[in-house]
Amino acid sequence: MSRTAVSAKDVAELAGVSRAAVSRCFTPGASISPETRARIVKAAEQLGYQVNRLASGLIRNETGLVALIVSDMATPYRSHLLAALTEAVQQAGKVALLIKTDRSDGSAEQALRQAISYRTDAAIFLSGMPARSLAETCMRNGMRLVLINRDEDRPGALQVRLHDAEAGRRAVAVLRAAGCRRLALASSGVGTHSISERERGFREAATAAGIDWIEERFGSTSYQTGQDLGMALLSRRDRPDGVFCATDLLACGVMDVARWRLGIRVPDELSLIGYDNIAQAGWDSYGLTTFSQPVDEMAAKSVEWLSAMAANDDGDDGAGTARAEILFMPRLVLRGSVAQGFVPGVGR
Amino acid sequence: MSRTAVSAKDVAELAGVSRAAVSRCFTPGASISPETRARIVKAAEQLGYQVNRLASGLIRNETGLVALIVSDMATPYRSHLLAALTEAVQQAGKVALLIKTDRSDGSAEQALRQAISYRTDAAIFLSGMPARSLAETCMRNGMRLVLINRDEDRPGALQVRLHDAEAGRRAVAVLRAAGCRRLALASSGVGTHSISERERGFREAATAAGIDWIEERFGSTSYQTGQDLGMALLSRRDRPDGVFCATDLLACGVMDVARWRLGIRVPDELSLIGYDNIAQAGWDSYGLTTFSQPVDEMAAKSVEWLSAMAANDDGDDGAGTARAEILFMPRLVLRGSVAQGFVPGVGR
DNA sequence: AGATTGATTGCACAGCTGTGCATGACAATT
DNA sequence: AATTGTCATGCACAGCTGTGCAATCAATCT
């Protein structure tokens, strides 16, 4: 009947002990005798008691909450990364607070403010970027920041990145080895750091090899944009025969337009490479050669770093760990979307 | 330097007012003069103050947290639903607590316990199911429960369901109208309520029409299972020419096996119908006829119900609202995966 | 036996906020 | 001018937990 939930006081009364004993019962390493613990546990189960982590967090300055800040979360790559992070966070005994952002201005700020208001132990940005001043406020208050595939660095935050430029370079190598003559670059117009890096690597390698290429860059990172990019690139007179797409979603769109609207055979007349290794890239309809991000490992390392930072909170003001960065290498996944040819031993 | 975050006391000191004034400043409808509010807002911005919702929730018995409990969240349909719910929750001024479950026993219980420990205002189950006793404990403590596409009902919880059986029936009608002679049902072996209902509708309609059909049911609800189902169904001597798949993911697997491994033309030799209307169903490679769930509307109505329940918390003990259910009708989306034919006016 | 050690338990406080109650100031009304 | 009403503000308490400190108690040692 009472609208309020059962508290430690109720358990204490039922078990005939002090409220402090109940607290110690659920605090690892606290001093409590086995028999009273047994009594308390029994009473707690009977009442359905769960320690109130709000009150606990209030006094311990550690809520066990980790904010995951993300946009476009229904996208294959994003949802995969989100799942991995949630799993890792839970494995570490914490819980994920999910905050969705959009493209609008100040959306990331708004999200971070939400995280602060719940006194989150950490915030992990999968997209967007908080203003520098607000980020510093977070750090000063003891909140950890992790930035995944973000560009500008915030001192004290962990940067989780991939060697995107290297992937762009390898894409050129693979396409050339497949015998492609006219290369193209298909990318969205969002201008994210990681996407820009993929473009840069592609251009560098093409320039270094002394070959010409064409580009199309517009729209968001979606299947629809992929279709439009494919239409723009493949209806040209000097149609390319090897395209590197900044994203698997784009590549799927390009491939579908080629096959189903323009009647171009893949990979006989057109070789395609994507990036992300989303589930659909492995489906029979696509068989897309792409670069795989070690999503699980990225998530695990991020959370690991958070725990490590929490462990050595002994007086250092974070200045010593000003620059933390983990760099992963995207792994080439060869499938049927690239024409058969000699693939150079680019391994290392 | 101080590890602890800025509190209302700090703001009050800077603004030269009492701490209570700061609290009132951020409480809508509280009595406070415009000039002191201005002073407080200025001081708060200067210090980067955000109201501590943990402490606020502690005293108001309303944390603003809504737990989303889900498994297989990287799946297209699930991630779509998850995104819609997160969006709806945020629109209502609340924040989503994301809890991932797996197939293991007691996983749902564990998740619900997590939700309780954070004194979540509500818990929304997208998969899994808590034990009845634990669910009742939640309700008694004032936590609202929403079950999406779940079978057993928990008194007091909101049931959000679709008319799955009707979809199964319509699938038979559409396949027959397309001229299919040998129907088949492809489903996973998970035995979820909603999936069982789709199967039931299919069988009922086929039986009523007096036609025979074949079935395959095994595995999880994945693309891979779809491939295996397709292989099992389509390599038979009496190969079916019209298949209703309990899920789009399954349908994609079936279609790919048909096209790319068995050389069966879709829709000329094989008509396919799925369920969920995931993004890939609309891609050129699939063009899958399917049933669309009004995901956004489902999310909006769920959160709306939560707010309504919170509003009339005036002494009623929930017994009056024992049975709440919202039933949605899946919408048929016609695409190219079904052979051209006369589609009966099943509207209504 | 007496002293010491160790474990266990209860008291009380801190951590941060919302709000009822009382007080004070000020405007409006008779 | 006196009274009434409104509004703003501060005090103090409640809500739930973790933990330092003192006290109690049993057990062990000399």
TrEMBL record, chains A, B:
<protein>
    <submittedName>
        <fullName>LacI family transcriptional regulator</fullName>
    </submittedName>
</protein>
<keyword id="KW-0805">Transcription regulation</keyword>
<dbReference type="InterPro" id="IPR046335">
    <property type="entry name" value="LacI/GalR-like_sensor"/>
</dbReference>
<dbReference type="InterPro" id="IPR010982">
    <property type="entry name" value="Lambda_DNA-bd_dom_sf"/>
</dbReference>
<keyword id="KW-0804">Transcription</keyword>
<dbReference type="GO" id="GO:0000976">
    <property type="term" value="F:transcription cis-regulatory region binding"/>
</dbReference>
<dbReference type="InterPro" id="IPR000843">
    <property type="entry name" value="HTH_LacI"/>
</dbReference>
<feature type="domain" description="HTH lacI-type">
    <location>
        <begin position="6"/>
        <end position="60"/>
    </location>
</feature>
<keyword id="KW-0238">DNA-binding</keyword>
<dbReference type="InterPro" id="IPR028082">
    <property type="entry name" value="Peripla_BP_I"/>
</dbReference>
<keyword id="KW-0678">Repressor</keyword>
<dbReference type="Pfam" id="PF13377">
    <property type="entry name" value="Peripla_BP_3"/>
</dbReference>
<dbReference type="Pfam" id="PF00356">
    <property type="entry name" value="LacI"/>
</dbReference>
<dbReference type="GO" id="GO:0003700">
    <property type="term" value="F:DNA-binding transcription factor activity"/>
</dbReference>
